[in-house]
Amino acid sequence: MKPFTYERPGTPAEAAAAAASTPGARFIAGGTNLLDLMKLQVETPAHLVDVNGLGLDGIEPTPEGGLRIGALVSNTDLAADARVRKDYAVLSRALLAGASGQLRNRATTAGNLLQRTRCPYFYDTAQPCNKRRPGSGCAALDGVSRQLAVVGSSEACIATNPSDMAVAMRILDATVETVDAEGTRRRIGMADFHRLPDERPELDTTLRPGELVTAVTLPKPLGGAHVYRKVRDRASYAFALVSVAAVVRPDGTGRVAFGGLAHKPWRVEAAEADLPRGARAVAEGVLAGARPTHENAFKLKLAERTLGAVLHQARA
Amino acid sequence: MKFDTPAGANPIDRLKVVGKPTDRIDGPRKTTGTAPYANDWHDPQSRLAYGYVVGAGIGKGRIAGMDVSRAEAAAGVLAVVTAANAGKLDRGAFYVARALAGPDVDHYHQAVALVVAETFEQARAAAALVRVDYVRSEGVFDLAAAKDTAVAPKAGPFVSPEAKAGDFEAAFATAPVRIDESYGTPDHAHAMMEPHATVASWDGDRLTLWTAIQQMNWGVRDIAKTLGIAKGNVRLVSPFIGGGFGGKGTILSDAVLASLGARAAGRPVKVSLPRPLMFNNVTHRPATIQRIRIGAGPDGRITAIGHESWSGNLPDGPPETATEPTRLLYAGPNRLMRMHLARLDLPEGGAMRAPGEAPGMMALEIAMDEMAERLGMDPVAFRVLNDTQVDPENPRRPFSRRQLVECLRRGAELFGWERRVAKPGQVRDGRWLVGMGMASAIRGAPVMRSAARVRLDGRGMVTVETDMTDIGTGSYTIIAQTAAEMMGLPLDRVVVRLGDSAYPESPGSGGQWGAASSTAGVYAACVKLREAVARRLGFNATDAVFEDGQVRAGNRSEPLVRAAAGGELVAEDGVEYGDLAEWFALQTFGAHFVEVGVDVDTAEVRVRRMLAVCAAGRILSPKAARSQIIGGMTMGIGAALMEELAVDARRGFFVNHDLAGYEVPVHADIPDLQVSFLDEIDPAASPLKAKGVGELGISGAAAAVANAVHNATGVRVRDYPVTLDKLLGGMPEAA
């Protein structure tokens, strides 16, 4: 870990200003990912802006009939919120499928959205990794890639986004609210919040330097059956090989998004029209253009079969 | 004391303390955080400094240049140790990897430097400033690719490269029913909770290491040899160890580098390996490729059994002895076991819980399941039919005690094996395909010379001192039970001190030899103490009965404590073993039964229930022994379903080098595991008629799971771990 300076501002605007005025600054909330990465010198911030004192830890109804979730609401509290459990059950289930009880107590809503990939080469500073050191190459392309992306990847990067929560937020059409150093507020739809790696895999999101996530809003409830299914080698405390978030209405229509397949939560809206026709039809559209490695080609079949199980469960 | 004939009746047989399921006596210290582990040593007077290891960033090559100037100039830095200033370093007598690279780099994350600073944080920050220029060279990292280069390994105390009986090739060629299959087991990490850690302190030329190793005698030998100092100038202290599984057999880089760092800094230095270094810097269980051939008559009697194993290691490193269990487990007149060893440039392969048996049984016990299926026999009945009560290579050598058949039958009954549907893929419970599998278990029961010192003080307390270690197994407790039984005292009148090389020598914890060996040494010392007590109290030692704090003979009874009224009584002795192991095959046995569910859509495998029935001599502490068996079963479930060090064969290292990437079972993976011990005493094993159980529980466990997966799905996976990607292709069409 490199020495760094630290401050704890009192308002979101001050936090954004502090981050913008100090080169190499990072926000820190729960620290469940950032501190690990700092110990390994994968992340080497010169300055930490502690956002825990910003009072962004409430969940409140919106005038539109949805929910506004403060950036600092813990994963534990969000999963346990009665409104979330009742109206956005897919989100609650996704959260509880992630990490461990201890980590969920510390991890925050914004921090969860901003967690970095778990690609093992990203974590090893002796290895090339375009996400960690742009231009150094991607060791995963011809390396150990069983966990890594099968769609939306590039020659520069096949990392996956590890978040379960983000997959649920993606089908709920959540919106990320931010503020920057000038106090300008911005709303970013979940579809546009995470990026594909293309030639700039070092950028996970479309946030601008110094821009602070203040909240995530959920539109009014969708109804329907909410399912989150996470498939992994052990029963808990593992990142998804494939996960499926689905909201299915009684007539068989609905929405579906996937985790574990791509650099971002993977949702292909056009393919959702095929939901009444079943998993195979949807999977064809969702996985079109997939470029798996020899180690992770199984994810294509697994995604389709998991979706089939999820649709079966949703209808039951 | 010499142990060269089977044990007769002795005071242990009373079983007033031994054999009781007592809580572990060191438990309160552990649960209150007052048991000092190596990394906990903080002497405020000693101006402790901290060392941080820099691991090599290449798998094979050499260091062309190093720049440590920025690290040396960093805040708080006291010294930077590299090959350039470390002086001449040898290796120990057990592990073969060098603790410090330079100029050659032999494997990934081999230490290239140790940065010593005032604080841990300063050392870690400065370590990142060390710049190393490497020249990579071509390495061999892929066992399958190197298989054809493998040669016969050197024979050694733990290695028999080839074992034969009869004419295997001819018998196999003519056997009416045969299988000939290949199996793969991956590299495994010990993944113990406590990292390798050492605090080193020099006093002149005398070195003290507070460290975490399993065998103090090996540690003293190996640190002395490595540093070129006298054994008599070394003291090792390891009172508590947070798991080892063979990964802390003797000193490793942390101990060597802490010693060098302390010498360079002129102060005590603490070094613990960061978790990401614990997969490539130190040792692991090597991968194997195994070929098993079994031939039998239509009646199911095995006529030919052949087991070959290929593994790799650094130069001079040993093979994985995967063929070892097959030498003794089943009958059959024609036999061939053969090991092959390839040179690999991966990190060093070494012992991990049940070396040989663990990976060997992963293969053999699938092969037995396949053979039973081919014969149309029940897998339990097939194994029972092929039981042997003598060493198949030497029929004049019987087993001292062998209750494999009893384990198999008792297990089948307890588990409800008769409900198993032999045809795979037939049982459905909701979204789960359900199957049952089983496997035998075998693990050697070696014993080694072990000594102890016992003291009786004026308060009537007995204190035991031996350099035996407790790596979480319960050594403290069974040693206390042994002394309490021998001296006729309750458990709370015994104090046990372990893990200090200044105490009488034991063989430590490893190879499942610790429990039987160390309690034998304590037994011998207590026999001497009883003699001293009897003399002091005017009894004939052979007549005296030690019971309830009293010593009795005839009509006279004296309080034990009175013997120490004139001063503490001290006795020291150990047990030396004769040639009983040549007359008898000394082994422990068991049988595993497993029920799994396999998700019909995703092919996720989850264990639903599991039972082990074990026969392992006298069980000294049923509670600690059960913990050992369920620990082994848990590790077996991990080996079956998830554990694999992922090799990057281009760059030459284990990629998943942390506990997020190297998955071991979590609580949610482990259902209620059942363990049943058969009543057994084995007089040929040790004076306590006991054998170890620390490694028996893993033997066969993974294969039982794999066989259950096959029974559930009809898919036979021969390449561990049995992950869902290997099953998906054979699962029923999606709903």
Automatic annotation (TrEMBL), chain A:
Keywords: FAD, Flavoprotein. Residues 1-223 form the FAD-binding PCMH-type domain. The keyword Flavoprotein applies. It holds the Pfam family FAD_binding_5. InterPro entries: CO_DH_flav_C, CO_DH_flav_C_dom_sf, Diverse_Substr_Oxidored, FAD-bd_PCMH, FAD-bd_PCMH-like_sf, FAD-bd_PCMH_sub1, FAD-bd_PCMH_sub2, Mopterin_DH_FAD-bd. It comes from the Bacteria. This is Xanthine dehydrogenase family protein subunit M. It comes from Methylobacterium oryzae. The lineage of its organism: Bacteria, Pseudomonadati, Pseudomonadota, Alphaproteobacteria, Hyphomicrobiales.
TrEMBL record, chain B:
Residues 19-39 are annotated as: Disordered. This is Xanthine dehydrogenase family protein molybdopterin-binding subunit. It comes from the Bacteria. Residues 32-138 form the Aldehyde oxidase/xanthine dehydrogenase a/b hammerhead domain. Residues 19-29 have a biased composition (Basic and acidic residues). InterPro entries: Ald_Oxase/Xan_DH_a/b, Ald_Oxase/Xan_DH_a/b_sf, Ald_Oxase/xanthine_DH-like, AldOxase/xan_DH_MoCoBD1, AldOxase/xan_DH_MoCoBD2, AldOxase/xan_DH_Mopterin-bd_sf, PaoC-like. Coiled coil: none annotated. Pfam families: Ald_Xan_dh_C, MoCoBD_1, MoCoBD_2. SUPFAM superfamilies: CO dehydrogenase molybdoprotein N-domain-like (SSF54665), Molybdenum cofactor-binding domain (SSF56003). It comes from Methylobacterium oryzae.
